[in-house]
Design goal:
Order of helices and strands: EEEHEEEEEEEEEE
Strand content: 25-35%
Domain Protein YjdM C-terminal: 47-112
Radius of gyration: 20 Å
Number of strands: 13
Structural class: mainly beta
Family: Belongs to the YjdM family.
Protein name: Zinc ribbon domain-containing protein YjdM
Domain Protein YjdM N-terminal: 4-32
InterPro entries: YjdM (IPR004624), YjdM_C (IPR013988), YjdM_N (IPR013987)
Oligomer: single chain
Largest sheet: 3 strands, antiparallel
Number of helices: 1
Shape: elongated
Length: 113
């Protein structure tokens, strides 16, 4: 048996080669060896102000009073935000804050609970 990698989508060990593609018979995912090495290098890690790694669904605390652009509202220091979603862009966190609504925050202004 050859040393082909497991499927990156479903982790099946029954992958096979089809030309220059690798194919998974269980989930029908197709990929190349080059794309597999690029995705592992290109994955962005999100870290809070203390260097802890953040992931989707985490709960964080705001470490600084933040003015909400376009309103007179302020997100106070110590505000807890649950169930964050990480996104690409200038502001890395998409979340809902009680009393304010849906906003985006930067990871440098939060710490993980």
């Amino acid at each position: 048996m050859s040393n082909l990698p497991n499927c990156p989508k479903c982790n099946s060990e029954y992958t096979y080669e089809d030309g220059n593609l690798l194919v998974c018979p269980e989930c029908a995912h197709e990929w190349t060896l080059e794309s597999e090495t690029q995705t592992s290098e290109d994955e962005k890690t999100f870290k809070d102000s203390n260097g802890n790694i953040l992931s989707d669904g985490d709960a964080v605390t705001v470490i600084k009073d933040l003015k909400v652009k376009g309103t007179s509202s302020v997100v106070k220091r110590g505000t807890k935000v649950k169930n964050i979603r990480l996104i690409d862009g200038d502001h890395d966190i998409d979340c809902k804050v009680d009393g304010i609504g849906a906003i985006q925050l930067k990871t440098k202004f939060v710490k993980k609970l």
